[in-house]
Write a structure and sequence with these properties.
CATH architecture of the largest domain: 3-Layer(aba) Sandwich
CATH class of the largest domain: Alpha Beta
Number of helices: 18
Number of domains: 2
Bound molecules: adenosine-5'-triphosphate, magnesium ion
Structural class: alpha/beta
Shape: elongated
CATH superfamily of the largest domain: P-loop containing nucleotide triphosphate hydrolases
Number of strands: 13
Low-confidence stretches: 1-17, 139-143, 394-402
CATH topology of the largest domain: Rossmann fold
Helix content: 40-55%
Radius of gyration: 24 Å
Distance between the termini: 78 Å
Mean pLDDT: 85
Length: about 400
C-alpha cells in the first residue's frame, strides 16, 4: 500500500498557526473522531497527522520530527508497545502517549518500560487527553532554571520525617504559588500515599528503574497531583511494582536533577535507604534535614550518620540537624547538651505538638488547614520561609540552636 492511502493530512484550519500538531496512530475511525473532538474543544492542540500503523508513523517521523504522538495500542497492546519501544529509541525527542480500552497494570508497566509517557483509557479521551498533552509539552526556554531539593533523613524510626516532609512540601508550594514535588523513597512502607489517601500504579521506583532518559517531563507525568501545592511520586512500597529490596538507587541523583528542573521545590522523604544512596541524596540536595528526637539512642544514631557521610566524602555543611518533638520543659536532654554531644553542631528544633501532628494524619489533612496556628505549623512555616529565601545551592541555617 502507498503511504498516501495510510496517512492522511487533514486540511489545516486558518487559525491553527499556534496550535501544536499531534500525530495519531490508530486504525479506528471512532478513536480518530474522539481525539479530534477532544483536541478541537481544547483549542491548543490539533490532530495534524493520522497514521494507521507504526510503520507509517516511522515514515512520518523520518520526514518531519514530531514532539507528541498518540498511539492506540488495541487490539494488540503488547505488540504495539514493543514497536513503540523501538521507535522511542530511534526518535528520542518524540513523546509517546498510548490509548487503550482498559487500564491493566501489567500493560502500564510495559508501557513505562517502552518509553511511553502517559497511558490513557479511551473513555477518558474527552476529559483528560488535552491536560495530559499539556503536561507533556516540551520545555520552553528557561529550562535551565533549577528548583531546590530538600531531603529528610531520619536518625531512627518514628522521629517525624514523613509528617514534616509532607507539610513542608505544602508550605513551600504555598510560598511559591507553584506545586512542590514530594518524593517518597521509603521502600518499606509508603506512608506518604497512606497519609494523603493516594493510590496509583506509578511512582518513584518506575523512574529509578527506567532504561531511557530521565527528564523533567517524565517526572511530571509520573507524579500524582494531591493538591495545587503538592504533587507526589509515591513510594515503591505503595506501587508494589518492585519488591522493596529490588529498588536500585543508582539513578537517584539523576532523578533528583530532573525533578528540580520540573518543580521549584522538591522535598524527599528518605528513610531507611542504604548509606550509599543517602550520600547521593545529600549530594544532590540543597539541604538535608536529619530528623531525630532528643534521646540518647537518636543522638548516638545522628553521630553514626554523620560519620558514615563523612566517610563517603559528603560535606556535612548541607546536613541540618533537626530535633523534632522538642519539649522545652520536663525534658531529659536539652538542646545544648545534644549539641555538645555532637561536637557543638547547631541544631534546629520543632516543638512537640502531638494532638495536631496525629490529628492531621488521622484526618488525612495538612497542618496548614487542620491546625493553622499550631506550634508545629508555625515552626514549619518559619523553616519553609528560610528555605524559600535561600538561593539554590546556598548553604543555610547555621546557629539556630535553641
Ligand atoms: N512535632 C511533632 N510533635 C508530636 N508528634 C509528632 C511530631 N512530628 C511527628 N509526630 C508524630 O510522630 C509519629 C511518627 O511520625 P512520622 O510517621 O512522620 O515519622 P517517620 O519518621 O516518618 O516514621 P517512620 O520511621 O515510620 O517513617 C506520628 O504519630 C506523628 O504524628
Ligand atoms: Mg516515615
Amino acid at each position: 500500500m502507498f503511504l498516501g492511502q495510510l496517512v492522511s493530512e487533514p486540511a489545516m484550519a486558518a487559525n491553527t498557526a499556534e496550535r501544536t500538531d499531534i500525530v495519531l496512530v490508530s486504525g479506528s475511525p471512532m478513536v480518530r473522531q474522539s481525539v479530534t473532538e477532544a483536541l478541537d474543544a481544547n483549542g491548543r492542540f490539533m490532530l495534524g497527522t493520522s497514521c494507521a500503523t507504526l510503520e507509517d508513523l516511522q515514515v512520518v517521523l523520518r520526514r518531519t520530527p514530531k514532539d507528541l504522538v498518540l498511539v492506540d495500542i488495541d487490539p494488540d497492546p503488547s505488540g504495539m508497545l514493543a514497536g513503540i519501544e523501538t521507535m522511542s529509541r530511534t526518535f528520542p525527542q518524540t513523546r509517546f502517549l498510548v490509548l487503550a480500552k482498559e487500564f491493566r497494570s501489567d500493560l502500564a508497566v510495559e508501557a513505562m518500560q517502552a518509553g511511553v509517557r502517559h497511558f490513557l483509557v479511551k473513555n477518558l479521551i474527552a476529559s483528560e487527553l488535552a491536560s495530559a498533552l499539556k503536561r507533556l509539552m516540551p520545555e520552553v526556554s528557561g529550562s535551565s532554571a533549577r528548583g531546590r531539593v530538600v531531603s529528610f533523613l531520619s536518625a531512627s524510626g518514628g522521629a517525624g520525617a514523613t509528617t514534616l516532609a509532607i507539610n513542608l512540601a505544602h508550605e513551600l508550594g504555598l510560598l511559591a504559588g507553584d506545586p512542590s514535588l514530594l518524593i517518597d523513597l521509603d521502600a518499606h512502607y509508603g506512608a506518604v500515599a497512606t497519609y494523603l489517601g493516594l493510590r496509583g500504579q506509578f511512582g518513584v521506583a518506575d523512574v529509578l528503574s527506567r532504561h531511557g532518559d530521565i527528564d523533567a517531563q517524565l517526572i511530571r507525568t509520573t507524579a500524582q497531583t494531591f493538591s495545587d501545592q503538592v504533587h507526589v511520586l509515591i513510594s515503591p512500597a505503595t506501587t508494589d511494582v518492585f519488591a522493596a529490596a529490588g529498588v536500585s538507587y543508582a539513578r537517584l541523583e539523576e532523578t533528583l536533577r530532573a525533578a528540580a528542573h520540573a518543580y521549584k521545590h522538591v522535598v524527599v522523604d528518605g528513610p531507611r535507604i542504604p548509606m550509599g544512596a543517602v550520600a547521593g541524596l545529600v549530594a544532590a540536595s540543597d539541604i538535608a534535614l536529619l530528623v531525630f528526637q532528643l534521646t540518647v539512642k537518636d543522638i548516638t544514631m545522628v553521630r553514626r550518620y554523620l560519620t558514615a557521610l563523612a566517610d563517603r566524602g559528603v560535606s556535612e555543611q548541607r546536613v541540618i540537624l533537626l530535633a523534632n518533638r522538642y519539649r522545652k520543659r520536663r525534658t531529659m536532654i536539652a538542646l545544648k547538651e545534644a549539641s555538645d554531644a555532637l561536637d557543638g553542631r547547631s541544631i534546629i528544633s520543632l516543638e512537640n505538638d502531638y494532638p495536631n501532628a496525629v490529628g492531621c494524619i488521622n484526618y488525612g489533612r495538612l497542618l496548614a488547614s487542620f491546625a493553622p496556628r499550631s506550634p508545629l505549623r508555625r515552626g514549619l512555616k518559619e523553616l519553609a520561609d528560610k528555605i524559600f529565601s535561600m538561593q539554590p545551592r546556598q548553604t543555610l541555617l547555621h546557629g539556630t540552636t535553641g
